[in-house]
């Protein structure tokens, strides 16, 4: 008899936090069919292309599957009970969360049908893997599976489930939810988060500082490639620093701080240029939940939090400068020696096409003659420049055309996994009059 190679799932979150989760058996649909499977990631995790495993139908997985609870500020308004309305945590494998999206309405569904469409899950898969290849911290996509159900949105669509992999699904909103249940549970969750992400850390204030730096580094890389998340609510800001939930996201073709694509972001709260500021706001909400853990004295705790948040502008600037060194071929320089040239490049980049500006750099040409002269005097590493300025991104018009056909999605995925090579078959210039709007349901 061959050895059993089935992956072993642990269920640490479900076991430790019954107050923050609700048992839920995922619905695989009447006729599940594997559409995309991430062979590389599956091999890394030891998870095969087995539908019973991927969909949580194996008895030992199904028994412990849970929908996670969390709260959140949505467009600045606090909602005390959100949670996984159409998602379920199957458990942990190799230290990673295995999570389904679109597997049916959980008790957190708030009236939704709990389903997802095939185009929307293909979109999440493509964007997650594109971000990963670009070196941006992100949740990963393990599989997309058609369910055999019809899902009604603006029209009838094929239903699908995304199998998502994450360092964890702890969010700022997780701590907001725990805090509503009391300080002891908040402390328990913070200790769990430290064990999971920062096992060498035992100081809560230091831990918040680490989270701030992780998240700043992530958002800085978003800004470098024109990524607009679209819905930076506190429940979409992770403790791990990974990017998560790509329904209303988009890529801005030009470096436009006012770029907004979400149909519900009427006032530009989550506009491209607002993302660093919204991150600070979200991190301040996290600090509020952790205040009693900083010090039992309320005034001292508040002072610690205020001091930590006062460091954010410098944390952000350091992260932004660091993210821009490699695209300019300047990684070998101390940051303080090149911040002037980076700042000047940023000023020139405003309003310019992101892709073509980056590819010009790869050809040794900046956005002005004067800047190019100063840059070339620094003898930039041109191999580094070429390997950090993509020629292809999952831009709005590019990804939109690939979602109606799985074959097209696979072809685009191949290009997105090789973003620094030329791809003449993909036009990064949007058609005239192309106006892109994203929806949470997409």
Automatic annotation (TrEMBL):
One of its GO terms (molecular function) is AMPylase activity. Its cofactor is Mg(2+); Mn(2+). Its EC number is 2.7.7.-, 2.7.7.108. It catalyses: L-tyrosyl-[protein] + ATP = O-(5'-adenylyl)-L-tyrosyl-[protein] + diphosphate; L-seryl-[protein] + UTP = O-(5'-uridylyl)-L-seryl-[protein] + diphosphate; L-seryl-[protein] + ATP = 3-O-(5'-adenylyl)-L-seryl-[protein] + diphosphate; L-tyrosyl-[protein] + UTP = O-(5'-uridylyl)-L-tyrosyl-[protein] + diphosphate. It is an enzyme of class 2 (transferase). Keywords: ATP-binding, Magnesium, Manganese, Metal-binding, Nucleotide-binding, Nucleotidyltransferase, Transferase. Mg(2+) binds at residues 236, 245. The active site is at residue 235. ATP binds at residues 83, 85-86, 101, 113-114, 164, 171, 245. Belongs to the SELO family. Nucleotidyltransferase involved in the post-translational modification of proteins. It can catalyze the addition of adenosine monophosphate (AMP) or uridine monophosphate (UMP) to a protein, resulting in modifications known as AMPylation and UMPylation. HAMAP family: SelO. This is Protein nucleotidyltransferase YdiU. It comes from Corynebacterium spheniscorum. The lineage of its organism: Bacteria, Bacillati, Actinomycetota, Actinomycetes, Mycobacteriales. The gene is ydiU.
């Amino acid at each position: 008899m061959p050895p059993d190679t089935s992956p072993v799932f642990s269920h640490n979150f479900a076991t430790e936090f019954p107050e923050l989760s609700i048992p839920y058996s995922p619905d695989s649909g009447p006729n599940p069919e594997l559409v995309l499977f991430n062979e590389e990631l599956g091999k890394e995790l030891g998870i095969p292309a087995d539908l019973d495993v991927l969909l949580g139908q194996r008895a030992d997985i199904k028994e412990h599957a849970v929908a996670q609870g969390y709260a959140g500020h949505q467009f600045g308004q606090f909602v005390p009970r959100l949670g996984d309305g159409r998602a379920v945590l199957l458990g942990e494998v190799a230290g990673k969360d295995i999570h389904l999206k679109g597997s049916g309405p959980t008790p957190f569904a708030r009236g939704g049908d709990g389903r997802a469409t095939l185009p929307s899950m293909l979109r999440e898969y493509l964007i997650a893997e594109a971000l990963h290849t670009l070196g941006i911290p992100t949740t990963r996509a393990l599989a997309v599976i058609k369910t055999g159900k019809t899902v009604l949105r603006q029209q009838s669509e094929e239903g699908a489930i995304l199998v998502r992999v994450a360092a964890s699904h702890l969010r700022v909103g997780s701590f907001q939810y725990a805090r509503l249940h009391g300080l002891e549970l908040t402390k328990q969750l913070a200790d769990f988060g430290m064990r999971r992400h920062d096992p060498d850390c035992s100081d809560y204030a230091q831990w918040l500082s680490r989270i701030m730096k992780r998240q700043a580094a992530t958002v800085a890389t978003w800004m470098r490639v024109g990524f607009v998340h679209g819905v930076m609510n506190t429940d979409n800001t992770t403790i791990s620093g990974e990017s998560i939930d790509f329904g209303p996201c988009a890529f801005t073709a030009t470096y436009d701080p006012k770029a907004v694509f979400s149909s519900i972001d009427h006032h530009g709260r989550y506009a491209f240029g607002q993302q660093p500021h919204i991150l600070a706001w979200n991190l301040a909400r996290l600090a509020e939940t952790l205040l009693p853990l900083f010090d039992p004295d309320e005034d001292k705790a508040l002072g610690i939090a205020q001091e930590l948040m006062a460091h954010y502008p410098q944390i952000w600037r350091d992260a932004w400068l660091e993210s821009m060194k490699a695209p300019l071929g300047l990684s070998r320089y101390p940051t303080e020696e090149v911040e002037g040239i980076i700042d000047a490049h940023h000023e020139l980049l405003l309003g310019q096409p992101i892709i073509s500006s980056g590819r010009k750099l790869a050809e040794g040409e900046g956005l002005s003659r004067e800047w190019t002269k100063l840059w070339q005097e620094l003898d930039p590493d041109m191999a580094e420049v070429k390997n950090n300025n993509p020629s292809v991104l999952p831009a709005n018009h590019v990804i939109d055309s690939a979602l109606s056909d799985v074959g097209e999605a696979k072809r685009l995925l191949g290009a997105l996994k090789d973003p620094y090579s030329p791809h003449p078959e993909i036009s990064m210039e949007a058609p005239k009059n192309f106006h892109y709007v994203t929806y949470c349901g997409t």
